[in-house]
Amino acid sequence: LEKEHEEEMESQRKYIRRAYRKNREAFLYFLDELHDQGKLHSMSLWVDLFSIISNDDRFSRMLGQPGSTPLDLYKFYVEDLKARFHDEKKIVKEILKDRGFSIETDVTFEKFAEIISTDKRATTLDAGNIKLTYNSLIEKAEAKEKERLKEEARRQKRLEQNFKQLFKKLETLSEDTKWDEVKDQLETDPDYQAVQPESERQRLFSEYMTTITQACLHTQNKRRKDKKKKKKQTVQQTNQT
């Protein structure tokens, strides 16, 4: 009788363990369904999906049983999706390359997703990883554009500096010199032609002339101050004698 009792107890334990396992498998299948529907992906948060998950019987049957909780299984599921990111990013880049589509800073996610969805390989990709790949490629495009703008600014600055250097070669340049008076003397120079359009040349000329005027005023003020200082020192020396 004792042996029969032990066998019966063991049979019950196996039955319970099997029931627990089936509950876990059913819950994982439920997560697969949510993933296939696009509701669950690598960027999903438990708190955002809890209202959907908690209303399903497959969640309820998991409550109270030992081992992994629904939250544990959810976290493991999402981590597995995240682990696929680098491989899926390669697939996305291959699709873009095959479609001849390059990512620029103004490409929207909607347009990006539209291009990706035209390829049958996209059916195996996680929606969250597609979004993360988009974010990564946009970030790279923005960094590239930022560097391009910096290089363009450096190039423009060099052109402006070279252009202003031309004025230093003019012996007749004074505070009253007008643009039309110097234009004919410079227009064959490559540094002159490198600056476009004509309005930009005039702006740089005006800027240069303003600098000269300010420099002249500074020099004149300094001379007046030095003259006053010298005169004051002379008076003091005279009084002391």
UniProtKB/TrEMBL annotation:
PANTHER family: PRE-MRNA-PROCESSING PROTEIN PRP40, PRP40 PRE-MRNA PROCESSING FACTOR 40 HOMOLOG A (YEAST). The lineage of its organism: Eukaryota, Metazoa, Spiralia, Gnathifera, Rotifera. The keyword Coiled coil applies. GO terms for biological process: mRNA cis splicing, via spliceosome. Residues 134-176 form a coiled coil. One of its GO terms (molecular function) is RNA binding. It comes from Didymodactylos carnosus. InterPro entries: FF_domain (IPR002713), FF_domain_sf (IPR036517), Prp40-like (IPR039726). One of its GO terms (cellular component) is U2-type prespliceosome. Residues 216-241 are annotated as: Disordered. Residues 20-80, 84-140, 156-211 form the FF domain. This is FF domain-containing protein. Residues 220-233 have a biased composition (Basic residues). Keywords: Coiled coil. It comes from the Eukaryota.
